[in-house]
């Protein structure tokens, strides 16, 4: 039989007790053999725990009797929202025009070049590659300054 599609739910808990509730949920999952696939405590969403389950009916048994759970009815959330919360925020490096940079990702990974133009609104830069005579546009998070200006 095919495995049920995962669904994500947010459980509202008392702020500061997210870690403790997550451990209680994990223990209850293990002891009762519930179909809970993951439990996430997002740093940005204080007072919430995200639970991935195959069958939504499991949630009632999961949160029943836990005193730190504020609302006994979990809220369904989209997978895209969970991925956005789980994805780490990458701080863009500070660069200036004419600065030598190395490309650390994408198709031009490992190449070096000089910054020609900085597009703050789009969060990317135009880099003139040293190996080839061409200018490419690279997202800021994919470059690393080699020399300081």
| Strand order, largest beta sheet | 8-7-6-5-9
The count of β-strands is 9
Largest sheet geometry: 5 strands, antiparallel
Beta-strand percentage range: 25-35%
CATH topology of the largest domain: Alpha-Beta Plaits
Q: Detail the poorly predicted runs.
A: none
- Give the count of structural domains: 2
In CATH, the architecture of the largest domain is 2-Layer Sandwich
- Given this structure, which CATH class of the largest domain is correct? Alpha Beta
The global form is elongated
CATH superfamily of the largest domain: NusG, N-terminal domain
First-last Cα distance: 61 Å
Q: Could you tell me the mean pLDDT? A: 87
Number of helices: 3
Question: What does it look like?
Answer:
This protein is 19% helix and 31% strand. Strands 8-7-6-5-9 form a five-stranded antiparallel sheet, with no helix packed on it. Strands 2-3-1-4 form a four-stranded antiparallel sheet. Strand 2 (36-40) and strand 3 form a beta hairpin. It is an alpha+beta fold and 149 residues long. The chain folds into two domains: 7-86, 2-Layer Sandwich (Alpha-Beta Plaits), CATH 3.30.70; 100-145, SH3 type barrels (Roll), CATH 2.30.30.30. It has helices spanning 18-32, 58-63, 79-86, and strands at residues 7-12, 36-40, 48-53, 75-77, 100-103, 112-119, 124-129, 135-139, 143-145. It contains three helices and nine strands; from the N terminus they run E-H-E-E-H-E-H-E-E-E-E-E.
């Amino acid at each position: 039989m095919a495995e049920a599609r995962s669904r994500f739910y947010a459980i509202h808990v008392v702020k500061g007790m997210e870690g403790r509730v997550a451990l209680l949920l994990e223990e209850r999952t293990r002891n009762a053999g519930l179909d809970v696939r993951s439990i996430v405590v997002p740093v940005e969403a204080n007072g919430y725990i995200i639970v991935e389950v195959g069958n939504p009916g499991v949630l009632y048994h999961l949160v029943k009797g836990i005193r730190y759970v504020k609302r006994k009815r979990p809220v369904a959330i989209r997978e895209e929202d969970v991925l956005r919360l789980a994805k780490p925020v990458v701080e863009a490096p500070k660069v200036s025009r004419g600065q030598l940079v190395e490309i650390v990702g994408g198709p031009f990974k490992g190449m070096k070049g000089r910054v020609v133009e900085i597009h703050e609104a789009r969060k990317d830069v135009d880099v003139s590659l040293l190996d080839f005579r061409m200018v490419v546009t690279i997202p800021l998070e994919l470059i690393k300054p080699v020399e300081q200006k």
